[in-house]
Amino acid sequence: MMQREEIDTLQAIYSRDGELEILFQDETTCVISLKINLNSENLYKHSSNKHGKKFTITLELPEGYPHVVPNISVDCNLFTRQTQTRLLADIRSYALTLLGSPMVMDLVLWLQENGLCYVSEEKDVTLSQESEETWTTLLSLDHMRSKTKYVKTLKYWAGELGLLNVIIFYRRWIFLLLQGKQKLVKEFVTRLRTVRVDVDSAGQSCKERMLTVLYERVTEHSLGSREFMVHESDEENSLEGLFEDLNVVSLFNNIIKPIISLVSQPLKSHLRNEILVRSLPSDLRDLDQIN
Known about the structure:
- The chain has helices spanning 2-13, 40-46, 81-96, 104-114, 147-161, 182-194, 236-245, 249-262, 269-278, 287-290; strands at residues 20-25, 30-37, 54-61, 71-76, 134-141, 164-170, 173-181, 196-199, 205-207, 211-219, 229-233.
- It is an alpha+beta fold.
- The strands form three sheets. The chain has a five-stranded mixed beta sheet, with helices on both faces. The chain has a four-stranded antiparallel beta sheet with strand order 1-2-3-4.
- α5 (147-161) runs antiparallel to α6 (182-194) and α7 (236-245) packs antiparallel against α8.
- It is elongated.
- The chain starts with a helix and ends with a helix.
């Protein structure tokens, strides 16, 4: 039943001729093919071929779906065999974070948003070849309705991009501390803003629209932790101790502490985000001044 409802929804969304095709369907299995446009604005930045803008994603929804990952194949004239193999491995890993819920739409959106990262051209600089400078970013999120799925997605992205990532739950606050190559950190933040990582009040997949960048800067020192970490605490001393262990106590003293001290009463989300920004001293973009 869930499979049938999902296909009906997809047919309503991709209703143009040739966009969606049901290749096979019986009581337990369905194979569908979707022809999807790449984001043409980003395409021009990545390729001189401005006419090859489509890819085809084929998914076999087997018995047990959505509790098992569908079989996925992707065909696009912009992908070499090597990049296509890497893309398939990554999208299948992402599908593992979506188990238990209809995921075809999420997979298609993920591919639309991230597919161009895998386009291979000699003039492109791959993510692994970017600047070696260490970039530290501190973010604030308003909420996580689907906490388990959200955290799994962030953990997957951090591993894929080779970032150090600490998720901090302190009372009603949620902070993300990222460190890695500048290009990769910015890629993480872009995904966070553009990929459906959470659910809205109606239970529908949604993008992160309540993200605030509190700090971002090239730094010379690294975090004490070398692994993905989730820290949950209601005690300020414990929170301060975490930042000490991570060798960034200055971020706690100059950014985190003023925020959690300033806002002592529940506020509407947009007012809280405004306070977050206004509470930061003007010179906090310079880590040398903080230390």
